[in-house]
Specification:
Structural class: alpha+beta
Number of domains: 1
CATH superfamily: Outer membrane efflux proteins (OEP)
CATH architecture: Up-down Bundle
Strand order of the largest sheet: 2-3-5-6
Strand content: 5-15%
Distance between the termini: 26 Å
Radius of gyration: 37 Å
Oligomer: single chain
CATH class: Mainly Alpha
Length: 505
């Protein structure tokens, strides 16, 4: 199971029209960047959980994951010579500081703030100053006064050159402009939507980091399980050698035990490689230098979850989900934009004033000023206002549709997360019992083989059952903890929920 495949699947859990969000054991895509619909869980045996295929077999998925900002980061920090202990809380903290998706979301807030100031600029006073030294010469004949010299003999046809100096302060102010006022209100709501999108991105980053860390824990457990299986296979092989030496078993039993040992060794090698690659994926997500050695300090906990009423969870989700609040703000922004478009045909008023000193030279200046209040009345502008209103109507309708779609998506997320949590909890209980039974079966098979009652086919089969049962238990425990993270995200409290869940472990 590759970390990159998991992260791609995670990114489809709750991608809203406003911002990116994430994941679950049955991840959905509600945005334009849909991805696989299943989360990697169990690896084989008798488990009913699907086994994912390596992302390396799917170049399109590998390319998509390399382009997704949530799977990247801006690495920071010096490489220490020792091994860095890394808890899930530390990983989340680093992810919130260095994950690329989080950094880009922060830039979006800055951009929305700039757009707000741009919209407000037409409502604020405009002040300027001007200092000029002017020189000019006027040809009256060129200006249409060529007959003056004939009518008035001696009247010059060319005036100048002459010059003057002018220093002036200028002020203008919009008095009434409903189009500019509503545009500023729309920009303000857009800025609010960007802030909520930033908060939602924090939830997404927490979810991605938490899921990636959980998968690293699962891969570490698979390494431990594989190495334990190697030790068991080695003991069975040594037992077969001893029995063959005393003539108590056939040569085929020794060969069968040797094949089983080498299979377990091969699986242990693959498990260690998967774990190393998963740690690289985790480091990329949280901005840790890839050459920095680190160890996971947290393990996958299991605490039976309390049943939360669906209605209470939905009410909490609608109130807390930042992507839903962002969608509401976008509808408000679209509403003000629609009002601004319809206000384009309304009259607007503005005021202008300037005062300065002017004269032929800086030593001979006199005060001068100009002031007026103007009323601008649009009469016909080529149906520009109508066109802007139609565009604004479409944007408003689209925002409302996206809001209702997100409302339904949140309910689906919550319902699916509750189903996943219940299913995963039952799988943990069953797989844990199955692992105990498989271990008892292996012990009895070894005793029967030692007593010469049977050959070691039963032993090999029992060991295979133990390996499958352990892997199924690891996968179900991973799925359970991921389902808890998924439910926290669906309810809009991933960051707080994950920290509190692991804080007590």
């Amino acid at each position: 199971m590759t970390a990159r495949f998991t992260a791609i699947a995670l990114l489809t859990f709750a991608i809203s029209p406003i911002s990116l969000t994430v994941p679950g054991a049955a991840l959905r895509a509600q945005g334009p960047s849909a991805a696989p619909d299943s989360l990697p869980q169990a690896r084989g045996g008798t488990s009913a959980v699907a086994t994912p295929l390596p992302a390396a077999q799917f170049p399109a998925l590998s390319q998509a994951s390399s382009q997704n900002p949530l799977l990247g980061s801006v690495p920071e920090g010096t490489i220490s010579g020792g091994v860095l202990p890394l808890s899930i809380a530390d990983a989340i903290e680093r992810g919130l500081r260095h994950n690329l998706g989080q950094l880009l979301s922060s830039d979006a807030i800055t951009s929305s703030q700039g757009q707000l100031w741009q919209a407000r600029s037409s409502l604020l006073p405009n002040l300027s100053a001007r200092v000029s030294e002017n020189a000019a010469q006027v040809d009256l004949a060129a200006q249409g006064f060529e007959k003056l010299s004939a009518r008035f003999p001696g009247f010059p046809t060319v005036i100048g050159p002459f010059g003057y100096f002018d220093a002036r302060a200028i002020a203008s102010q919009s008095l009434v402009d409903m189009n500019a006022i509503d545009n500023a209100r729309s920009a303000e709501r857009t800025r609010v939507a960007a802030k909520f999108s930033y908060q939602d991105m924090r939830e997404v980053v927490v979810l991605v980091v938490g899921a990636t860390y959980l998968e690293a824990i699962a891969e570490s457990a698979r390494v431990d399980s594989a190495e334990a299986q190697v030790k068991t296979a080695q003991a069975l092989y040594d037992q077969a050698v001893d029995l063959k030496r005393v003539g108590a078993s056939a040569g085929i039993d020794l060969l069968r035990a040797q094949v089983e040992l080498q299979i377990r060794q091969q699986q242990a090698i693959a498990a260690r490689n998967d774990f190393a690659k998963q740690k690289l994926s985790l480091a990329r997500t949280i901005g840790l230098p890839l050459s920095q050695e680190f160890t996971l300090t947290d393990t996958a906990p299991y605490e039976p979850s309390t049943v939360v009423p669906l209605e209470d969870t939905l009410e909490h989700a609608y109130a807390q989900r930042a992507d839903f609040q962002s969608a509401l703000a976008q509808v408000s922004a679209a509403t003000f934009a629609r009002r601004a478009a319809t206000a384009e045909h309304l009259p607007s008023a503005s005021a202008y004033a300037d005062y300065g000193l002017a004269g032929p030279t800086p030593d001979h200046l006199h005060g001068s000023f100009d002031t007026y209040v103007a009323l601008h009345i649009p009469i016909f502008a080529g149906n520009r206002a109508r066109g802007d209103a139609l565009v604004a109507d479409a944007d408003l309708a689209r925002s409302r549709q996206q809001l209702e779609n997100l409302r339904a998506q949140i309910e689906q997320d919550v319902r699916s997360a509750l189903l996943d949590l219940q299913s995963a909890s039952e799988q943990v209980n069953v797989s844990r019992s199955n692992a105990d039974l498989a271990q008892q079966t292996l012990t009895q098979a070894r005793d029967r083989f030692s007593a010469g009652v049977t050959d070691n086919i039963e032993v090999v089969q029992a060991q295979q059952s133990v390996a499958n049962a352990n892997d199924s238990y690891i996968s179900s425990l991973y799925a359970y903890n991921l389902a808890r993270v998924e439910l926290a995200r669906a309810a809009g409290s991933a960051e707080r929920g994950i920290r509190e869940y692991w804080k007590g472990k």
